[in-house]
Amino acid sequence: MIEVSVVGGGSWATALVKILTENKIPTNWYLRRNEQVKHIKEKGSNPSYLPQVRLNPLFIFPSDNLLEVIERGQIVIFAVPSAAIQAVCNELDSSLFTNKMVLSAMKGTVGANNEVPSSFISRILNIPATQIATIAGPCHSEEIAASKLTYLSLSCTNQDTVDRLSVLFRRPYIKVCGNDDPMGVGYASIYKNVLGIASGMATGLGYGDNFMAVLVSNALFEMQNILASTPAEQREMLNSTYAGDLLVTGYSNNSRNRRFGELIAQGHSAEIAVNKLGMVAEGYHATQGLFGYANEKELNLPILTTVYRILFGKESIETGFKKLEEKLI
């Protein structure tokens, strides 16, 4: 029987483990903190993230030994914050991944080259592009936890890899769509978190639905500009893989990036906002990396630029949004 290895102990990793174990797939799960491992073994739930989810103990094997977890699985899922993937990869040898399929469940740029996670992992661990895929939404882990109807997107240049991975995640409440655009899906997943922060900032500043509609409409144009800078044989930007993920992140109260933006608008520093969230807001680090990528490609992205200047350029949020008002169309 095929076994899966999951690296990461957050809410997204927990949601994916829920699906896998419901499908009775033996799941080796690496969690950095030993207290999480002990609690999952004893109680069948992750005490830190989505604690309401009861996991099938017959198919879950938690461990704080990274190498052991990687070795056991024929399929490896990386679901750590993108800011941590370099450190994780530094502990691994490419020989561990011979004949394995890899799935990136991360949403941020990596390294000085501002790569999407799947490209970074492929390059560092010498994994062929045909054996590594990206999983994205539109979805929130909280709704997967509640078994609400969810659409997942799997993207790889190899259709056979997409087909084989899709089987792992299909459930009565999970529908899986596939495409061959991992680069586009990767950058779309990064940008939508930036829009989530902008949306939260706007809400916190007291802007209403009218402004929010304009903000999100302009964000669709910005995403289109980003995707146009990446190669693809065929891409439909209004597909739910791209636009749908952007919309749910911009509007949903489940979006941690949106909540992060609201906390910034309330006057909190980024550090305090992260502490109040109690979890990683991928859009915070993604803003910096994506801004660097946009500069390299000479892209005009007013929303991204505004969020970057507020978070990293010391511009006041009020000044930033007043300037943004004049740039939106």
Automatic annotation (TrEMBL):
Alphabetical list of Pfam families matching this protein: NAD_Gly3P_dh_C (PF07479), NAD_Gly3P_dh_N (PF01210)
Domain spans labelled Glycerol-3-phosphate dehydrogenase NAD-dependent N-terminal: 3-161
Residue span, Glycerol-3-phosphate dehydrogenase NAD-dependent C-terminal domain: 181-319
GO MF annotation, one: glycerol-3-phosphate dehydrogenase [NAD(P)+] activity
Binding site for NAD(+): R256
Alphabetical UniProt keywords: Lipid biosynthesis, Lipid metabolism, NAD, Oxidoreductase, Phospholipid biosynthesis, Phospholipid metabolism
Family: Belongs to the NAD-dependent glycerol-3-phosphate dehydrogenase family.
Protein name as catalogued: Glycerol-3-phosphate dehydrogenase
Organism: Sphingobacterium humi
